[in-house]
Amino acid sequence: MRDRRFAAAVLLLVTIVGVSCGAFSQGVAEASGQSTVNMVLSYLDSVATYIGKGLVGLLNLIADGRISTDLEEPLGYLGLITGLLFVFAIIQAARKVIWIAIGVGWALLVIRVVLDALKA
Length: 120
What we know:
The chain has one domain. The N and C termini lie far apart (53 Å). It is built from five helices and no strands. 9% of the residues are buried. By secondary structure, it is mainly α.
């Protein structure tokens, strides 16, 4: 049962990475002068930006618009990493380390949000 979960997680990861890299490597990188690595990193940055904008929008609904837009990038990356945590939650090896990092990140971000909300 555990081997099947591990195999399913690895297959999902390989599929996601393969599709992403395959989409970037179809001549777009060569035409624009960017390498595939830069394209993948730009894609991840865009995803994190959209996640961050969504989370800041939700927080502003709760805090009456007092949350700074400076939090979009850190919230986005933390949200992206949290999503990756859920993908890799099946794999037992690195789960405790990732949970600790995520917990510290969320705690620091909550402190920053509270300070921003109380600032006004």
